[in-house]
Amino acid sequence: MSLIYKGQNLFIDNTSIKSIAKNNITPFYVYSYKKIRNNFQTFSNFFKRVEPLICFSVKSNSNISLISELGKLGSGADVVSEGELLKALKAKIKPNKIVFSGVGKTENELKLAVKKRLLLINIESESEAKLIDKISKKINRVTPIGIRINPGVDANTHSKISTGRVDSKFGLPISNFLRFCKSAKKFKNIKIKGISVHIGSQITSVEPYRKTLNILYKIIKSSKINFEYVDLGGGFGIPYQNKEKKIDIGNYSKLVKKFQKKIDCKIIFEPGRFIVGNAGTLISKVIFIKKNGKKYFVIIDAGMNDFMRPALYNARHNIIPVLKSKKKIGGKVEFVGPICESTDTFLKYGNFSFLDENDLIAITNVGAYGSTLSSNYNTKPLASEIVVKNGKVKIVRKRQKISEII
């Protein structure tokens, strides 16, 4: 995490949160460029013997400025919609570094992807392959595709972010995949160049990845196709709470290197959370504090519309005060938002640093699936996004005006 206290005041890198809040309406997202760069370089270093193409998962954070900064560091993009594709292109990511994934791409989305000559369109059904072939034929083009398989591996993560089990909507089951490989010759306007797999998100153990590599190896041998690319997806977990374990990426990289030697292919990764998760913080103001029975409710101006993960996945994100106090509130504390839903709650504490109304708090590790999952529920404007880079504070998405919604 890029947050540290200097005395009682919370800083992101060397910039005080209080000084950023003076000029910006809460709630707002603030990102550390230094942390994003360090995370990207850490990931690259782990896999340097593999020399993968790293395609940042745009769904985790689709701010154009952040995608552009990652592009300058050498990243490509993994996109799942027309909007994400257009954002990646606007951020100057080259088409030959873009992979288009997703289970339900529309005809218009596929037309755009074919026209832009992306590195791969990862298909997830036979019907999608037929449609790409038809679109490509019309403009006399052969389009490179990857085939996403469903390996039937349970990643032992939250059920709502697990994507590799047999009963999941994603990818082709192994038997369908092998059948498709045999019949693919009849499609003259697509070329199978890759095989893709993504088993879930927030994975903190190497074991599901090991199983997946073993299954992939057998499937590739059975298919009798020389795949130029093997897209291993992402899903690398980060610790959200102090005692949570980290994934041993060094160990995983050794497994991937062995796999690559046997298959002789270019590896693609699609990390999102690992790159941006711990680089983002949501700053919010305390509106009211009220005592109901034995519990203090701290009502903040950030709601589930601004940050959906706790309501959607029961995700636990630590909350810290922007101004630390030696005094304590002295009782049970629950941080809740202003939205008219019981699920608009963030975290409970047995005790907490003393807070007053109008004080600021920071919700930590929100760089991934924070702003991208936000909405206008209750007709609330989307929060601004700010990047701290080399001591400079830059707004990279302005706060939405209510008039724009209306």
CATH topology of the largest domain: TIM Barrel
What profile does the largest beta sheet have? Answer: 9 strands, mixed
Q: Distance between the terminal alpha carbons, to the nearest Å? A: 37 Å
CATH superfamily of the largest domain: Alanine racemase
How would you state the average pLDDT, rounded? Answer: 93
Give the C-level CATH assignment of the largest domain. Alpha Beta
Low-confidence stretches: 160-164
What would you say the CATH architecture of the largest domain is?
Alpha-Beta Barrel
Number of domains: 2
- Gross geometry: elongated
- Helix/strand structural class: alpha/beta
Number of strands: 21
Give the fraction of residues assigned to helices.
25-40%
Could you tell me the strand content as a percent range?
25-35%
Radius of gyration: 23 Å
Count helical runs. 12
Description:
- This protein has helices at 17-22, 33-46, 64-72, 82-90, 107-115, 126-138, 174-183, 207-223, 249-263, 273-276, 309-313, 402-405, and strands at 3-6, 9-12, 15-16, 28-32, 53-57, 76-79, 98-100, 120-123, 143-150, 172-173, 190-196, 229-231, 266-269, 280-292, 295-300, 319-321, 332-336, 345-349, 360-363, 384-389, 392-397.
- With 406 residues, it is an alpha/beta fold.
- It folds into 2 domains: 3-31 and 277-405, Lyase, Ornithine Decarboxylase, Chain A, domain 1; 34-276, Alpha-Beta Barrel (TIM Barrel).
- The radius of gyration is 23 Å and the shape is elongated.
- Residues 160-164 have low confidence and may be disordered.
